[in-house]
Structures are given as structure tokens and as C-alpha cells.
Design brief:
alpha/beta; UDP N-Acetylglucosamine Acyltransferase, domain 1; 5 helices
């Protein structure tokens, strides 16, 4: 019980540290549903660990009805989690959240199928997850990472990274910008289509050049598309002499 009240004080202090809109202790205690849901979860998690799992699930559903935040009582949550606004947040059974993390409304820490065992994400210390982001599967988000609003993260993320997009890709790591030179690094189906289109146009131009016995002409308008190192069939794509990817430019 002493530990519970200590965590309550820490949770309230974390609100003042991370939310400039917080004006007083009374306001924080009475007007922050994220805090209420977190405190209810701590009780439900205690019941879950002590074998009262049906009761814990039932109380978690009441918490969901009251505050619009669904936290499975089996989820492991560290110290000073800050849930801002909170409506629509879902935290799955085997999720693990470290200390000093921040979640905004609409965040989902979910699974990707019917597998058993550990099937939900692990957020290490200091992770910030923007509104509407979806982190799915048994993956790990490293310490001090930032997940952009609306992103969908399906793979592990190293420490001190910023990840955005659908599907999510790293744009900053250790304070340095990560430049994506290959569309396949984004794992975007649209990028796959562009790569195939670029490859087919290149082959057609080469065949046309062979039939007409005329050299390939440079396009008037340049739109750079980087071909991946290997195609889906495993064939080697064209490379420059220094080993760099060749850019083919086409008019749109």
C-alpha cells in the first residue's frame, strides 16, 4: 500500500513535468482520466498477479467504460507513465512499458495474430508515442525513442530513434537524420510498384535501343527512382562501377 501511494505521488509529479496545462494538484487529481485509469490498473494488476484474474478483467472493463482507456490487467507498467487525454488507448495483456513513458490518445499496443505467449510490444524507458500510433507485435521500442502520430510500427526500433510513417521507418537516430536512399527501406507497397515500373521501363528502353540501333536518350524531366540491389526474383539490378545504385530518371 505504501508503494501504491508513492507511485501516485510520482504520477502526479510527472503530469506537472510534462503537461504545461496542469495548474494545480486538485485539477490533476480530478481532471486527468489517464491518471485514473493508471491507478485502477495498478490495483487490477495486483489482483491479476494474485490469481484473481476474472475480477481483475471485470474491473478493467469498468475502467474502460468510465475513462475510455483499455489496459489489460496483465500488462506490466513502470513508474511515471503519463497518459495525456487518453481516449481510445489500448494496452494488450503482454505489453511491457518502462519508466517515464508518454502515451497520447488513440495509441494501440497490440498483437498481430492469435499467437500465444509474449505477443505485445515492449517500450523501454523514456519512450514517447504520438496520438493514434499503432505498435503491433512482440517488438521492442528502444529507450528515448519517439513514435510519430499515426505511425504503424511493426519492427524493433533501436535506442534514441524517431520513427514515423505507415509502415514506420526511422528518420532520426542519435540526433542525426537517417537518409533513405532505397524505397525498399520504407517497406512500402507503393515503393515496390515504383521499383518494378522503373525496372520494366528500363528494359523496354534497352530493347527499343537494340531494335532501332540508336543509343538511349536522356529524359527531358527528371524524377529520381532508386532501384533496389536485388529484385524479388533474386536477380542483380544494374549498379554503377563504384557499387552505388544507379538512378533512372523518367518523365511523368
Amino acid at each position: 500500500m505504501v508503494g501504491f501511494f508513492k507511485s501516485v505521488r510520482e504520477d502526479i509529479a510527472s503530469v506537472f513535468e510534462r503537461d504545461p496545462a496542469a495548474k494545480s494538484w486538485l485539477e490533476v487529481v480530478t481532471c486527468y482520466p489517464g491518471l485514473h485509469a493508471l491507478w485502477c490498473h495498478r490495483i487490477n494488476h495486483w489482483l491479476w498477479k494474485h490469481g484473481l484474474r476474472t475480477l481483475a478483467r471485470f474491473l478493467s472493463q469498468i475502467t474502460r467504460f468510465l475513462f475510455g482507456i483499455e489496459i489489460h490487467p496483465g500488462a506490466q507498467i513502470g513508474h511515471r507513465l503519463f497518459i495525456d487525454h487518453g481516449l481510445g488507448i489500448i494496452i494488450g495483456e503482454t505489453s511491457i512499458i518502462g519508466d517515464d513513458c508518454t502515451l497520447y490518445q488513440g495509441v494501440t499496443l497490440g498483437g498481430t495474430g492469435k499467437e500465444s505467449g509474449k505477443r505485445h510490444p515492449t517500450l523501454r524507458n523514456g519512450v514517447f508515442v504520438g496520438a493514434g500510433a499503432k505498435i503491433l507485435g512482440n517488438i521492442t521500442i528502444g529507450e528515448n525513442c519517439r513514435v510519430g502520430a499515426g505511425s504503424v510500427v511493426l519492427h524493433n526500433v533501436p535506442d534514441n530513434s524517431t520513427i514515423v510513417g505507415v509502415p514506420g521507418h526511422i528518420v532520426l537516430r542519435d540526433g542525426k537524420r537517417v537518409v533513405i536512399t532505397d524505397p525498399k527501406d520504407v517497406r512500402d507497397p507503393l515503393s515496390d510498384v515504383l521499383i518494378k515500373l522503373a525496372r520494366e521501363v528500363k528494359e523496354l528502353r534497352q530493347r527499343l535501343s537494340e531494335l532501332t540501333h540508336q543509343p538511349m536518350q536522356e529524359p527531358e524531366c527528371e524524377v529520381a527512382i532508386v532501384l533496389d540491389e536485388t529484385s524479388e526474383a533474386g536477380e542483380q539490378d544494374a549498379k554503377g562501377e563504384a557499387g552505388f545504385a544507379v538512378y533512372y530518371d523518367y518523365q511523368i
